[in-house]
Amino acid sequence: MSKGLLLMVSAPSAGGKGTILGELFRRDGNLRMSVSATTRSPREGEEHGKHYYFISREEFKNLIDSGSMLEYAEYVGNLYGTPRGPIEQWLSQGHDVVLEIEVQGGAQIKKLVPDCVSVFITPPSMEVLEKRLRGRGTENEETIQKRLDTARKELLQAEHYDYVVINDRLEDAVDDMQAILRSEKLRYEREPERINGLLAAPKA
Predict the structure, then answer these.
(1) For 179-190, what is each residue's pLDDT tens digit?
(2) Backbone torsions φ then ψ of 20, nearest 5 degrees
(3) What is the pTM of this model?
(4) Which residues pair with 82 in a beta bridge?
(5) d(CA 22, CA 61)
(6) Residues whose CB falls within 8 Å of the CB of residue 22, separated by 6 or more in sequence, listed in order
(7) What's the CA gap between 31 and 113, in Å, rounded?
(8) 3-state secondary structure of 157
(9) Average pLDDT over residues 100-114
(10) Rounded CA gap, 96 and 90, in Å?
């Protein structure tokens, strides 16, 4: 069985990565989603254990100290991190694992898991991004401006990712994500045993 692929996905807040990934999972039953832990409060409709593990700052720090976090970062005053165990188990079972992560944590993942595939999702424009943020109706003006400032800084980090997907038309963005997965699985370094097996086969 081939080891699964770790797909690391980042985007500015309201960049649309959740919508894209939702459709990607609908198309591909082999995918698994890493569930992050966070110290922020749940938004309306979010469920503990499904969207995030919502825990206290003290609980979060205990997980860091025990080595149970693959990575962690602070974003807009809240801690976010990735539990290590489920990811390693899924990859060993041949599942492809999607890690939805902020750029700070993404830099850590690239160092810890060099063979991961990183994708940065961008909005078609800052105007569209601001419209999406305001359309949520969940944050005050100060928070919106803070998120826009953070988004500009995050966009500067896109150059460190393997791929950039522009989230303008949903179907096109999801097609691009599928194409990335397919092409990465065909890279020689991910399947050297297959070629070696062909060479080792007895001659006819």
Answers:
(1) 999 999 888 887
(2) -65, -45
(3) 0.79
(4) 71
(5) 30
(6) none
(7) 18
(8) coil
(9) 85
(10) 7
CA distance 55 to 96: 26
How much of the chain, in percent, has pLDDT values that exceed 90? 49
Compare 195 and 112 and report the one with higher pLDDT. 112
How many CB atoms neighbour CB 151 within 10 A?
20
CB neighbourhood size of 133 (10 A): 21
| Residue-by-residue DSSP string for 15-32 | SSHHHHHHHHHHH-TTEE
Q: What is the 3-state secondary structure (H, E, C) of 175-202?
A: HHHHHHHHHHHCCHHHCHHHHHHHHHCC
71, 75, 181, 193, 197 from 200: Cα distances, Å: 40, 51, 28, 10, 5
85-99: per-residue pLDDT in tens?
A: 889 899 999 999 999
What whole-number distance in Å separates Cα of residue 69 and Cα of residue 80?
A: 10
Q: How confident is the model over 112-145, as pLDDT tens digits?
A: 888 899 999 998 888 888 888 888 777 888 888 8
**Residue the block writes with tokens 């045993």:** 193
DSSP state of 76: T
Q: How many CA atoms lie within 13 A of 97 on its CB side?
A: 24
